[in-house]
């Protein structure tokens, strides 16, 4: 027992000494930034409560704008010029865009997040509730927790004298959870910012796998599709005859079965979310509800289905689309079918530049005495705004909080993750800001 106790004490002391040695790798200014994050932890949690308690479901345009105003009040004292960009053209609230000029010739950093949540005003899940170092609340992790991490990191940089030279642009969209249409307008400001930037940092949630923080260097696309089939209607006793053929629902079943058999490939997922068929069938204007009428003794005249598919590159997107079109075109007897694609979020492939940024983040982890972050499997992450700039700038994802149950009542944020994520972000941004532009 004494030997076991000695071993435990030696291990703890060794860990403390190693942590101290790691901290010594930080510059004095970086250590001040770390200390500021710790000193302001409760302030950060208070800010998170304030923004979470303000509903900002995507379609609550006034609520999204109010959260934008709260963030503006945090950024302007740090020296940011803040603009609110209304988006009446897309029937969404708008975006917050902030600019900190920094030192000429330094790398320009683009920080990305979003103000809206999936929880609209009629959701019963509305309030922030804390229990120790965790809290529940709508958007507490996705993405209001990420915004708080961003602000905590920037305040720490300011307090440590690391912000003045930093060239930073921030784009917080107001419709990430349900992007407005047309996307070219809804994401025009973000795309333009990506073309100006040298590095993009996405402050959506940190992925944690088996207790280990993961780095994210890729996001898959999100593409929609609507499939409509038609057939000759008549008495059910005539189905499959030369005169009447297979009917619309059987044609729909053929196509969906062929999708399942022929489409699978690495990094692809696809899904049918809603389907209806009968003598009459239609989707509503939002594409989220379907209605149908029919009888068992009538050959169905029409069927409709809507779904999505997700890919890791634009090449894969185009290849999958072509496969789907070929399957749809191979009509069963007496039927017809058409497929229409809906552009959503593009893919962010795992490039060498993104991997190099993760290496930079892991240098920060080493110097802070934190474990190295391995690259997350992109199948474990959904689509996001950073993908709109991925073709123009290297980027990292997941600089926000660790959370669980996102997009569902009970969404829970790990409040302790605000500390380590804000420290990582502050040091990474400060170091990147000292580097000259690559181009």
From TrEMBL:
Residues 1-24 form the signal peptide. This is Glutamate carboxypeptidase. Residues 217-334 form the Peptidase M20 dimerisation domain. InterPro entries: ArgE/DapE_CS, Bact_exopeptidase_dim_dom, Peptidase_M20, Peptidase_M20_dimer, Peptidase_M20A. Its cofactor is Zn(2+). It comes from Sphingomonas aerolata. PROSITE patterns: ARGE_DAPE_CPG2_1. One of its GO terms (molecular function) is carboxypeptidase activity. Keywords: Carboxypeptidase, Hydrolase, Metal-binding, Protease, Signal, Zinc. SUPFAM superfamilies: Bacterial exopeptidase dimerisation domain, Zn-dependent exopeptidases. The lineage of its organism: Bacteria, Pseudomonadati, Pseudomonadota, Alphaproteobacteria, Sphingomonadales.
């Amino acid at each position: 027992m004494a030997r076991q106790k000695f071993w435990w004490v030696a291990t703890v002391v060794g860990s403390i000494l190693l942590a101290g040695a790691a901290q010594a790798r930080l510059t004095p200014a970086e250590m001040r930034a770390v200390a500021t994050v710790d000193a302001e932890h409760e302030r950060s949690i208070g800010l998170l409560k304030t923004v979470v308690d303000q509903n900002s479901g995507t379609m609550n345009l006034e609520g999204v704008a109010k959260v934008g105003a709260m963030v503006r009040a945090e950024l302007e004292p740090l020296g940011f010029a803040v603009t609110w960009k209304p988006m009446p053209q897309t029937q969404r609230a708008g975006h917050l865009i902030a600019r900190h000029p920094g030192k000429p010739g330094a790398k320009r950093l683009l920080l990305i997040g979003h103000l809206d949540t999936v929880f609209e005003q009629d959701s019963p899940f509305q309030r922030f509730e804390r229990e120790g170092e965790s809290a529940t609340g709508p958007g507490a992790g996705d993405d209001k927790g990420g915004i708080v991490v961003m602000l905590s990191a920037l305040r720490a940089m300011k307090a440590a004298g690391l912000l003045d030279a930093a060239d930073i642009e921030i784009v917080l969209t107001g419709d990430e959870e349900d992007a407005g249409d047309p996307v070219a307008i809804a994401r025009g400001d973000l795309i333009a910012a990506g073309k100006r930037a040298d590095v993009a940092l996405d402050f959506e949630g940190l992925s944690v796998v088996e207790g280990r923080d993961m780095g994210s260097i890729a996001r898959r696309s999100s593409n929609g599709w609507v499939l409509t089939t038609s057939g000759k209607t008549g008495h059910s006793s005539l189905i499959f005859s030369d005169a009447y053929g297979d009917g619309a629902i059987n044609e729909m079943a053929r196509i969906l079965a062929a999708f399942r058999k022929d489409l699978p490939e690495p990094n692809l997922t696809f899904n049918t979310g809603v389907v209806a068929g009968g003598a009459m069938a239609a989707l509503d204007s939002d594409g989220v509800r379907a209605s149908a009428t029919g009888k068992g003794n009538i050959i169905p005249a029409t069927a409709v289905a809507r779904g999505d598919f997700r890919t890791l590159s634009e090449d894969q997107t185009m290849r999958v689309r072509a496969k789907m079109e070929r399957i749809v075109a191979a009509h069963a007897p007496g039927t017809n079918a058409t497929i229409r694609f809906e552009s959503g979020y593009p893919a962010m492939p795992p490039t060498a530049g993104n991997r190099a940024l993760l290496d930079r983040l892991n240098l920060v982890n080493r110097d802070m005495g934190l474990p190295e972050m391995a690259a997350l499997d992109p199948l474990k992450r959904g689509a996001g705004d950073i993908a709109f700039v991925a073709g123009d700038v290297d980027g990292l994802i997941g600089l926000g909080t660790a959370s669980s149950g996102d997009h569902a009542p009970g969404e829970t944020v790990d409040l302790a993750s605000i500390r380590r994520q804000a420290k990582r972000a502050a040091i990474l941004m400060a170091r990147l800001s000292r580097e000259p532009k690559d181009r």
